[in-house]
TrEMBL record:
Residues annotated as domain Repulsive guidance molecule C-terminal: 114-343
UniProtKB keywords: Cell membrane, Glycoprotein, GPI-anchor, Lipoprotein, Membrane, Signal
Protein's UniProt keywords contain Protein transport: no
Protein name: RGM domain family member B
Localization, UniProt: Cell membrane
UniProt topology in membrane: Lipid-anchor; GPI-anchor
Signal peptide positions (record): none
Domain Repulsive guidance molecule N-terminal: 18-85
Family recorded in the similarity comment: Belongs to the repulsive guidance molecule (RGM) family.
GO process terms (BP): BMP signaling pathway
Length: 414
């Protein structure tokens, strides 16, 4: 048997976790499809490099597999025999995607889709269609399944409000379709990155990309995951970031109980802002949270009607104007509404009503707000300011707080 037949043709049964047969299959396929001749030429040297890389990815589970070790030795021998170092462009693995990577149709009626978004001052649209406003800062998983992890960080960003300060998107490795890729966006950056953290912009060849970044402009990036029929939008308005995604229901249903995320479960029960009560009586809400109204209610309503946002997006617009007065947040709400209508057709059919008023909440105007400052992070200015103190200032602040605590304890004991 010739070496090439041994490498690319023979397919013995191996252990479930060792991917040596997978590597043999895809590169045999590549030789057949590409019409590549075995010998001293750049295309075949690229095949050898990619084959070696594929095997290296499965070295741990194949440790006791004789075929794995034989292939590894023979490939390195061929690499030397065909002087592949004379083709330096072939020394790094390519982004070849085997035809075994299937791209499912991502539109109805072929695929039932779900939609999640996080925008403005922590407004969340969950996968089951519920709108919430999260009331806690910190790091959270927006989406977490075996294919994808989207992590967000909420922080105080000025204008009296908290919003997304960082987005990290991790595309998990899929043996048939993609290597692990990571994308990061930070509120401190002047523009959204147009590539993954490793500098690449797609996985696959130019005609068949399994994963791809579509750079619309410095404030709008789309990440397409064709192997799971998923699209992610990342937007930037000044320091404010937003993220939305359309994902197949079948992918959502694959999620296990230990893969918690807020797209699936929403904000924790005691960490969500009572939006309807807040909009029914903004003055009481603001007074309890220790913040001042930045835009009068009547002005905020008129502004949100003028930009033509409706329903939950209208509520988010009014709320963000009340607490921040920042037009960049309002632009983000406007784009969030456009994104859901563009990406998720069921929204218009099943959720849209066209409401542009707050009268539906009038019955909740008498809600009694209590201990808001202690219970939430709506007023984050003091926290953010203390975080910027130099060490000596933080030491003095801590010392003064301890002294006050000791005085209080002494007074209480007397």
């Amino acid at each position: 048997m010739e070496l090439s037949q041994f490498i690319f043709g023979y397919k013995p049964i191996t252990g479930n976790n060792c991917m040596v047969d997978y590597c043999a299959d895809i590169y045999s396929e590549r030789l057949d499809e590409g019409g590549i001749l075995i010998g001293m030429n750049a295309p075949y040297c690229q095949v050898i490099t990619d084959y070696i890389h594929c095997l290296s990815e499965t070295n741990r589970p194949c440790r006791g597999n004789l075929r794995y070790h034989t292939l590894h030795t023979l490939l390195h021998r061929q690499e030397k025999e065909f002087a592949c170092n004379s083709f330096p462009e072939t020394m790094k693995p390519s982004n070849y995607v085997p035809s075994g990577c299937i791209f499912p149709v991502d539109t109805a009626p072929h695929t039932v889709q779900r939609y999640c978004a996080l925008f403005g001052s922590r407004h969340l649209r969950t996968l089951n269609g519920r709108f919430e406003t999260c009331g806690r800062n910190g790091a959270f998983s927006l989406v977490n399944n075996k294919h994808l992890l989207v992590q967000i960080t909420h922080a105080y960003l000025g204008s009296g409000t908290s919003a997304i300060s960082k987005i990290t998107i991790i595309i998990k490795e899929n043996k048939r379709c993609t290597v692990r890729k990571q994308y990061e966006a930070d509120s401190e950056d002047e523009r959204l990155p147009n590539a993954f953290s490793d500098g690449s912009k797609y996985v696959g060849d130019s005609s068949r990309k399994a994963v791809e970044i579509v750079f619309w402009n410095q404030n709008h990036v789309e990440i397409v995951l064709r192997h799971i029929a998923t699209r992610i939008y990342v937007r930037r308005h000044g320091v404010y970031l937003s993220v939305s995604l359309r994902i197949p229901e079948r992918v959502v249903e694959e999620q296990t109980d230990d893969e918690f995320d807020i797209c699936s479960y929403g904000c924790s029960r005691n960490a969500a802002v009572k939006m309807e009560e807040a909009l029914a009586n903004p003055k009481s809400f603001m007074r309890c949270h220790g913040i001042s109204i930045k835009t009068p209610l009547k002005t905020a309503i008129e502004r949100c009607i003028r930009i033509n946002v409706m329903d939950a997006f209208f509520d988010a617009c009014v709320f963000d104007l009340l607490i921040s007065g920042d037009e960049r947040l309002i632009a983000q709400v406007y784009d969030a509404q456009n994104d859901i209508t563009d990406l998720y057709s069921p929204y218009v059919r099943h959720y849209f009503t066209g409401r542009q008023n707050l009268t539906v909440y009038d019955a909740k105007a008498g809600y009694k707000w209590k201990q808001c400052i202690l219970d939430s992070s709506m007023n984050s200015r003091q926290v953010a300011s203390s975080a910027r103190l130099v060490p000596s200032q933080r030491y003095r602040l801590l010392r003064d707080m301890l002294l006050l605590l000791l005085v209080s304890l002494v007074s209480f004991s007397n």
